[in-house]
Design a protein that fits this description.
It is a single chain. The chain has 252 residues and is α+β, with helices and mostly antiparallel strands. The protein folds into two domains: 88 residues, no CATH class; 145 residues, Alpha-Beta Plaits (2-Layer Sandwich), CATH 3.30.70. The chain is 43% helix and 12% strand. It contains nine helices and four strands. It has a four-stranded antiparallel sheet. Helix 3 packs across helix 4, helix 6 packs antiparallel against helix 7 and helix 8 runs antiparallel to helix 9. Bound molecules: flavin-adenine dinucleotide. The site of flavin-adenine dinucleotide (FAD) has 9 residues, from helix 8.
């Protein structure tokens, strides 16, 4: 399994449309801001320089609701405290503004069948009608990951046999005049859950939180649990405060 973060939210500080009473003079009083169209606006919002764009965007959205950019409440002035309070209050809609996209390869069709049940994520998955499955490598679940163990050999034999049948079916159907796409779409019927697939998946932070709660869970399937744990650890690098309440070990 390879899960690669390929896109995530970036804030365009220079175009922040801060208007009166958030004038340069007003902001000056709260952070030494001298030019609201310049980098200093970022310094004002990101009072901790380690705050991430995704986390600060959520705070910005929340502050836009009450026009509280001047951070009147000291207990929520810091970004981690602000987001902790948002989560505590259940006002998670502000977490929907930042998003992250992953390119996932080396996962089984069983995993993506479960993943795509989550309706708030967006997907683009490798087509089994267009892409030849002949050269794919099976993705066995973690319980069958020891090469040479009897269960691995059994699974490998079953997969190889299905793959041979797949290739033969493509041949037979093409010989009968079906197009390559028609032949592959029919022949894939004999391919197992272990068939490798690839998927681009995008979600906003609220949606990711929901998916991770369900799939980074002891009750979840082992492969998707590993996937969710990997996604969580990468999301923590771009939105640590948004996931500050999540455990290091799977939810129980
Ligand atoms: C451990 C585990 C075992 C599972 N086993 C099975 C199984 O055996 N068979 C099976 O079919 N599925 C199974 N699932 C899938 C599960 O039923 C859900 O489809 C999946 O987890 C997606 O979550 P969700 O339904 O909360 O919806 P999501 O699409 O992830 O949506 C997130 C939330 O948005 C809201 N929402 C989304 N759509 C609607 C809507 N139309 N109306 C109202 N509210 C909405 C709900 O609050 C929902 O919880 C399993 C999931 C897990 C985690």
């Amino acid at each position: 399994m390879k899960v690669t973060l390929i896109a995530s939210t970036h804030m365009d500080w220079v175009v922040l449309p801060l208007e009166e009473p958030y004038s340069n003079e007003f902001l000056d009083a709260f952070g030494g801001v001298t030019n609201r169209m310049g980098n200093t606006t970022e310094q004002w919002m990101k009072q901790d320089e380690d705050d991430s764009d995704a986390d600060v965007l959520a705070e910005f959205a929340g502050r836009a609701c009450y026009q509280s950019f001047h951070k009147p409440n000291p207990s929520t002035a810091a970004n981690d405290d602000y987001i902790a309070n948002i989560i505590f209050q259940g006002h998670e809609s502000v977490l929907e503004h930042a998003s992250a996209t992953f390119y996932v390869i080396g996962v089984s069709r069983a995993l993506t069948h479960e993943l795509i049940r989550h309706r708030h994520l967006s997907y683009s998955e490798m087509s089994q009608r267009f892409v030849d499955l002949e050269n794919t490598t099976p993705v066995f679940p973690p319980a069958i990951d020891q090469a040479d163990a009897e269960e691995w050999v059994t699974a490998e034999n079953a997969y190889s046999s299905a793959l041979e049948d797949y290739k033969y079916l493509v041949e037979l159907l093409e010989a009968k005049g079906f197009t390559r796409k028609q032949a592959r779409e029919a022949a894939r019927a004999v391919m197992p859950n272990a068939t490798e697939t690839r998927i681009v998946v995008t979600g906003n932070m609220r949606a990711w939180r929901d998916v991770i709660k369900k799939r980074f869970h002891v009750a979840a399937d082992a492969e998707i649990r590993e996937f969710a744990g990997e996604v969580l650890s990468q999301l923590r690098t771009i939105a640590p405060n948004t996931f500050q309440d999540f455990p290091e070990e799977p939810f129980a």
